[in-house]
Amino acid sequence: EHMGFIFWNHGSGVSSGLCIDTVHDYDSLSLGEVEYAFAKANKKMTDKFELIGFDTCLSGSIEYANILAPYTKYMVASADSEPGDGWNYTPIIDYIVQNPDATGLDVGKKIADAYDEYYSQDEDVNGYTTMAVYDLSKIDAACIETNNFAKFLFEQFEQDNKAYNNFANVIEKSLLYEELNVDLGTLIKALKENNFIKYDTAKFEQSINELICYNNIGEEYLTKIDTILYLCKLEDPSIDINNITLSMIDTIYLGDDYVLFVTNRDNVLKFVLPYDDRAHKEIEMILNQIEKDYE
């Protein structure tokens, strides 16, 4: 009556996927493959999953929350990397056995609590772990506000050549995981406390706070909201999106429709919304021109 699903293995955020197959050329499940699998399974289901969990690193992202919203009520994941032992399953299974009518929120809270309790006893990682439960009925507002922020950024980039550097200063004040995933809590905090970019963060912050219905954040990370989004930086120039090689450029992805800024090292070259087949063709043209410019 209550269905759940857990991903278990390595995770690399939305950039390189999760559940890496070490036998078959280290293939992993991409964001699109995860969405396709649940969409196909959903055709034979009579109800949503109560909970989809990620016992994988860097999976507490707005992108995963967005694609899973049609298929599950709640999601539980860590925005940060997980320590090597992963989840502590014994108290989780015991709780489910003793509470067969537990909701996805109930089980998600138990997962987060068991995870926090387990690693609080490890002095090497105590205070540096995160685990959150996401109420996916709130994802639409979070994506809308993320897209609103992306639109605002683009308008700033168009009007002021210094705006891109200003945004880079905001990112420097934010917490990044693996240099590619920015914590939205510290991003919003940086926007509020610095004058690099003037943006009213109230609705943005509220939407993300409502998306996160429960979390356990290590005391070393108390400024975080525990949700990340993906930033592709110049240090990672070969991200493959639908077989398009992004070469010698910088990109920023934000929100429900994958707002995409295509830039060179100095200027924003193109803004695409939504990210559809037409956008693919435009991006290919831009990439070809960039490659010619750098030859």
Question: Short summary of the structure?
Answer:
It contains ten helices and 15 strands. The chain has 295 residues and is α+β, with helices and mostly antiparallel strands.
Would you kindly provide a written description of the structure presented here, covering whatever features stand out?
With 295 residues, this protein is α+β, with helices and mostly antiparallel strands. The protein is 40% helix and 22% strand. The chain is built from ten helices and 15 strands. The chain has helices spanning 13-16, 31-42, 62-68, 89-98, 104-119, 139-159, 163-172, 184-193, 202-211, 277-294; strands at 4-8, 18-21, 27-29, 49-55, 72-77, 130-135, 176-177, 181-183, 212-217, 228-232, 240-241, 244-245, 250-254, 259-263, 268-272. It has a six-stranded antiparallel β-sheet, with helices on both faces. Helix 2 (31-42) packs parallel to helix 3, helix 4 runs antiparallel to helix 5 and helix 6 packs antiparallel against helix 9. The chain is globular, with a radius of gyration of 19 Å. The model is unreliable at 232-279 (pLDDT under 50).
- What sort of overall outline do the alpha carbons produce when their principal axes are compared? globular
Task: Give the H and E element order.
Answer: EHEEHEHEHHEHHEEHHEEEEEEEH
Strand sequence of the main sheet, in spatial order? Answer: 7-8-10-13-14-15
The averaged pLDDT comes out at 79
Helicity range of the residues? Answer: 40-55%
Would you report the number of β strands? Answer: 15
- Assign the structural class, choosing from mainly alpha, mainly beta, alpha/beta, alpha+beta, or little secondary structure: alpha+beta
Number of helices: 10
Uncertain runs are: 232-279
